[in-house]
Design brief:
The complex is a heterodimer of chains A (about 110) and B (about 110). By secondary structure, chain A is an all-beta fold. Chain A has no helices and 11 strands. Chain A is about 0% helix and about 50% strand. The model of chain B has no long low-confidence stretch (mean pLDDT about 90). The chains are: A mainly beta (about 110), B mainly beta (about 110).
Amino acid sequence: GAGVSQSPRYKVAKRGQDVALRCDPISGHVSLFWYQQALGQGPEFLTYFQNEAQLDKSGLPSDRFFAERPEGSVSTLKIQRTQQEDSAVYLCASSFLGYTGELFFGEGSRLTVL
Amino acid sequence: QKEVEQDPGPLSVPEGAIVSLNCTYSNSAFQYFMWYRQYSRKGPELLMYTYSSGNKEDGRFTAQVDKSSKYISLFIRDSQPSDSATYLCATLLMNTGFQKLVFGTGTRLLVSP
């Protein structure tokens, strides 16, 4: 497809379970971002990759959150021992390496932790 | 204080109305400002992008930046029901070496037929 693809679109997890969220960016996009969007809030930055290098992970809420992009394309956001406060939409975005502020977002993965 | 503040709404208007959406920001060093539109259960999409102060027009949409008052506005003329969405203002942090966006909370707009 031409856009950013995320899976699963919806995930329900019991507290304490591990989850993995996948992002397939637009082909050729060097930059990849993960954002967290809580209900009624704007997206909050989690982490940034340039190709396979994770250059900024300052937004990850705790060491239970881990992201990787091993081959510089598909990325996975993993959340270990999920907590109720992790319930949110996790948005992936990609862009060419540039500074225009134009990010192409996927539709998000909605995580509900019971 | 959040770096970008935005009234969450909802803002309800009749079809054809002129809509004004606003944000304030705290850091005078911000120079790049964006408006993203987010439909329900979709990802945000870039609507308008401006640099520094002034106006930028694109069809029915006008983005305005007033750096003296740290105020960002988006005007929608002849609003349509299809404009019903959440509008997110954002700014770009340039000292990070990459496109780190800071978003406002978003304003939900409802345009009734």
